[in-house]
Amino acid sequence: MSSRVSAAQAVSVRLTGNGEGVQKRLSGPLRRPQSMQYFVILTKECNLFCAYCGGGSDTPPKEIQYSLEELQSFLSKDPDPILEFYGGEPLLRMAVMKKIVNGTRGRFALQTNGTFLDRVEPRLLRKLQTILVSIDGTESVTDRERGKGVYQRAMRNVAAVRETGYRGDVVARMTVVQGSDIFESVTHLLGAGLFDHVHWQLSFSMFWRSDVTEPGLQEWLSRYNAGVSSLVAWWVDEMERTGVVPGIVPFIGITRSLLSGTKAGLRCGSGDDFYAIMPDGRISACPVSVDFDFSVVGSLRTHTPESLPKVKVGEPCTSCDIFGICGGRCLFVNQSQGLLRDGAYAEICGTVKHLVSELQRALPRVRALVDGGRIRGDDFLYPEFNNGCEIIP
Ligand code: SF4
Ligand code: SF4
Questions:
Q1: I need a surface site. Which of 169, 221, 258, 261 has the fewest CB within 10 A?
Q2: Ligand nearest to the CA of 264
């Protein structure tokens, strides 16, 4: 869930406009060396019942079974831990979150459906460097997937967070389902003036093997790709017009790789520098695949951060011609290909390849803006740390 270029404090970016190699130094921090991110699943319970999720997870236990001391002992062996609170809906266990934040060394982030954000006291909010709010675009799209009234409640609460003077990064985190209009959804959320960044990922539900498949997926995927093309064009137009890089996370992360020419690993970091601590203390490579054997790699009672086994993506990603840019997209999907419909992996990859090729096409314009000083190369050094954005939709 982050741009995994290197652990260096600065990156050398090769800008090769007009065939002339030009080295530019981008100062500004990348992720610090050895930063590991842990999703802390505070509860598997959720107050919503979203169409693509279904209200948390049924597998026991739902609530945390380890002590704060056990968590602290595990994290004490990590020089720079990043904790992201996750669920279910983590704010259903706000008191536990507060206890962890106040009693643990590290940097903190929250991934929430936003419906209880107004109840987080400002002092606790200020300790969160990033807040990711799940919201899917316009009111009609969000409420169709997440329940009536959810959009208004989440947006009102994000506004309330802003009114407290919160200065951290607020990210709108969309799940994109068949039928959504990617251009409309992203520009709507950016235009609301509440979010610093917008990120999305395609819903798994479109690709799983299922008896019930919604018709028209191929047509929608074509429309999605066309929407991505329009969005890339809009993104670069806006940079040229305003000198500001609109906060579209996938575009920023991929463009950073294209500018620097550096290879990316699996960008969410799952099974590498990103793990999820389950309520019973077991540790999963990915917070979504906690019920899958490949994913459960240890426990905070038996492992240290350093001894956690690494899990890597395999074929077809490792032979893919854009592996160094995509990084393999999703460990869960890569390791669970038997659960996908025939041809679904290729469908997903088709969208990734389209996105990358559109950004490659836009690169000369972006490079000219950086070379001309209209935008700063540093604007692509996002996120500073693994903040829960997977970069590749
Ligand atoms: S485009 Fe597809 S096959 Fe290629 S690296 Fe990404 S997920 Fe893997
Ligand atoms: S679901 Fe996929 S992309 Fe998201 S964290 Fe897990 S492995 Fe990474």
A1: 261
A2: 1
